[in-house]
């Protein structure tokens, strides 16, 4: 690391400490600078459903959705809120934000593809 890089890194770390931020910085050589102890590192909560199971359930209903078509995704073995979050995420990724409208109904999660 060049001296200028080291000076910049030292200043950045000093600034983060001064505003009482938690940080973990890894430089180009793999050196770690942190004020977070190993016990404080946030762990992911356990998954509610096995990896990929919920998205596979939702994708099979959304695979062939056409503009103007309404698809009802039944909750099946999943809670309806999780089905809705997964469905809207997939629609946004595949067709873009604003390309659908959705509704949580008693019989399942409804999605209308608008464009």
How is the secondary structure organized here?
Elements: H1 3-18, E1 24-26, E2 32-34, H2 53-62, E3 70-73, H3 80-95, E4 100-105, E5 108-113
Antiparallel strand pairs: 1-2, 3-5, 4-5
Q: Can you give the mean pLDDT?
A: 91
Strand order of the largest sheet: 3-5-4
Helix content: 25-40%
Major sheet: size, sense and barrel closure? 3 strands, antiparallel
Q: Please tell me what the overall shape is.
A: elongated
Radius of gyration, in angstroms, nearest whole number: 23 Å
Which spans have pLDDT < 50 for at least 5 consecutive residues? none
Instruction: Provide a count of the helices.
Output: 3
Number of domains: 2
* Beginning-to-end CA distance, first to last residue: 51 Å
Q: What's the β-strand tally?
A: 5
| Beta-strand percentage range | 15-25%
Structural class of the helices, strands and pairings? alpha+beta
The H/E string reads: HEEHEHEE
